[in-house]
Write a structure and sequence with these properties.
The structure holds two protein chains of two kinds. Chain A is mainly alpha-helical. Chain A is about 80% helix and about 0% strand. In chain A, helix 8 (about 115-150) crosses helix 18. By secondary structure, chain B is mainly alpha-helical. Chain B is built from four helices and two strands; from the N terminus they run H-H-H-E-E-H. Chain B starts with a helix and ends in a 29-residue tail after the last helix. Classes of the chains: A mainly alpha, B mainly alpha. Chains A and B meet through helix 5, helix 6, helix 7, helix 10 and helix 12 of A and helix 1, helix 2, helix 3, strand 2 and helix 4 of B.
Chain lengths: ~525, ~120
Amino acid sequence: MTVKALPLIVFGAVLAVTIGVTFWASRRTRSSTEFWAAGRSISPLQNGMAISGDYMSAAAFLGVTGLMFLGGFDGFITGVAAICSFIPVMLLLAERMRNSGKYTMADVLAFRLRERPARTAAAIGTLFVVGFYLIAQMIAAGSLIEALAGLSFPLAVLITGAAMLLYVLLGGMLATTWVQIIKAVLLMGGVLVLALFVLAKFGWDPIQIFNTAKAKADNPAKYLAPGGLFTKPLDAISIGIAFALGTAGLPHILMRFFTVPTGKAARGSVGWAIAIIGIFYVLVSLIGFGSRAVLGAGGEKLAGDGGNLAAPYLAQSLGGGSGTAGGDIFFAVISGVAFATILAVVAGLVIAASGGVAHDLWSQVIKRGRHREGREVLVGKIAAGAIGVLAIGLALVAGKGFNVQLLVGLAFSVAASANFPSLVLALFWRRFNTAGALTGVAFGLIASIGLIVLSPPVWAGPDSHDGAPFPLQNPALFSIPIGFLGCWLGTVLSSERTEARHRELRVRAETGVGAET
Amino acid sequence: MAEWEEVARTQEFEALLVRRRRFVVPALLVWTAWFGAFLVCCGVARGFMGSSIYEGFTVGYAWALSVIVLTWIIGWLYVRVSARSFDPLAERAAGTRGRETFADRPAPGREQPAETETEPARR
């Protein structure tokens, strides 16, 4: 594979701008609040863009486009479920998280439960979710840069990892937030232009896109109907539930609520995020169908095993085709947007994981809150470095060939099964207690990861559908109820009562009285 | 009495809980029903979802778009109702007119006992 100059120049420009922002942010990042919560200085619109940035990962853009290219309508189901998921986040969590926590979701549990076990459980849940998500994104980064710019997979993973560590170590949450905002603008711009090009090509008539795509599909009868990708009925339902409830357990999204000054601002930021991400998915649906309509069956080889590269090759084709100036430039720009997307998301993941290790495990569980202020940040940076290096290593070992949206779907199901139940019950169930949180996280983790191992994508290899003990591609349909069951079982088996603390938590969560500033 | 206990005793706080629940529970039910039905139909009613409303514009795609629109509507309504109804109640419950909303207190739940308030309970 030859090195391509134009995409490399765009990648370089993306790196230069984001690293510039990082140096600016590094002069304002010293205390713990600055490192993990950007000094609580982010406005609702900025935070809404940053949440969108965190959420519109390479999976959302390249993965959904790829799934729609390969399987048609089924690919869009994951996008619809993903935008939907902000309803429970907004109605149940956003303001309440901001009002009752400090830096991480574990703060909310620790408020009413016994501090050390509760934090330990939440931190473990955080690390597993972030781990899955991070590996998915690193694999996406590697295979993408390899295909787009001609660098080798390991080198590409190393460059991504190095940039991610630079943002987090130097600029903390402030740099990560601004990298997200820049990326959200770039991505929305790129997606909008791409969708407009697709529409223009088909005479501004979406119906034309659908029918052309259908005619060029491998299985035209199924392309615009469900069932093209998720062959078993329960597959569509399970993966839909994973996305719809998973967001409410994603540590790097929940952490964003601590970067705004008030609960009201947290709510407003979700409002902005819903608006932005909704528009994004409508545009992506046009791009997804458009990629099939334009590239046809001949694009399958270009798009790669999981279909992840359908979007940039669509851009190339719309710009005039391979070898033309227009095609090469459009290809390079969309590749650069995808690169920015990945960089921003991995940085957000690493900072969430470092909060789990340093603020929850080290500072509160091991040191019991007795240490000097600066130490927590130092430990956070060491943790971020270690996590980053580990993720780079695992991505190199795991290799490529998975569709990133499906991999991320697994991270969502772990989040929805292990984190979501105890978080919601801590806020809303009077009787909930420490044992419930511990068993809930344990049941959710074991069920979701266990079923993932037994499911076709892992047991029988990437993108296979059969020949595994657990028949579904995503475990959420079963693992989420098991997570809730664990919470209930642990609670009723333990005699600990936490109603008094719950009353205080409720006042704080609902009104903001006593919230961290 | 700790500040939060005072707040918990106000009528405004009770009203806030009730009113917010009156919005959140129905909204979540509508959301679950509409999106859940979409998922179930994607799983089992594939022919119906793939049938064309207008020359290839399918029921499934229209339904998917309607789920996104529903998300926008619920989100917009919640922001609006919060600003008009919930926020003023929360402020009155906290008795924050002329006072800091966020009392600077130590991190949750450790060592220090809760502060005592000298102000008489509001009712």
